[in-house]
């Protein structure tokens, strides 16, 4: 888009005509990840100040939708997939396959540009971590998390998510 880029200007700062022109001139790629995996990663990176995963989840639930951190806010509220027509949606856990396809579509060589991604190992690790962490949560917390992320679960194919049970 011809408009000069300014540091960290939010799309909401532009008028509808400018937004439409900008979105129409870019290839839009959305990277998505199972919301429960995002919570686990956030907790493991030390963003939760509590000692247990269960108490961290309670903090998340107590923060509510409007006061929640970007680290765990539902993707639908961050990326607006119902309003923005993304050209590609790339699922975490299938990065090597999907990035290869995306680079090929862009006319770029796929072999030399892709980092070594071990998606199957990542999926297995997160499956194991999910089982461990999910077992720490109360039935009420599980239900509340499923409700908190209901729109993400409806918008994206997280069929194996613990939250979609």
TrEMBL record:
Keyword Glycoprotein among UniProt keywords: yes
Domain of life according to the entry: Eukaryota
Entry's localization field: Golgi apparatus membrane
Cellular-component GO terms for this entry: Golgi membrane
Keywords, alphabetical: Carbohydrate metabolism, Glycoprotein, Golgi apparatus, Membrane, Signal-anchor, Transferase, Transmembrane, Transmembrane helix
EC number per UniProt: 2.8.2.-
Name assigned to this protein: Carbohydrate sulfotransferase
Organism per entry: Picathartes gymnocephalus
């Amino acid at each position: 888009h011809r408009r000069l880029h300014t540091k960290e200007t939010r799309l909401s700062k532009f008028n509808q005509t400018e937004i439409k022109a900008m979105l129409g001139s870019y290839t839009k790629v959305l990277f998505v990840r199972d919301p429960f995996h995002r919570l686990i990663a956030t907790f493991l990176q030390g963003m939760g100040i509590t000692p247990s995963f269960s108490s961290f989840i309670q903090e998340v639930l107590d923060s509510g939708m409007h006061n929640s951190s970007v680290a765990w806010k539902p993707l639908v509220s961050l990326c607006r997939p119902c309003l923005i027509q993304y050209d590609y949606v790339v699922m975490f856990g299938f990065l090597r396959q999907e990035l290869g396809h995306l680079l090929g579509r862009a006319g770029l060589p796929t072999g030399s540009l892709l980092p070594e991604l071990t998606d199957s190992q990542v999926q297995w690790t997160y499956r194991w971590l999910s089982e461990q962490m999910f077992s720490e949560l109360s039935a009420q917390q599980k239900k509340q998390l499923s409700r908190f992320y209901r729109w993400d679960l409806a918008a994206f194919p997280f069929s194996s998510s613990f939250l979609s049970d």
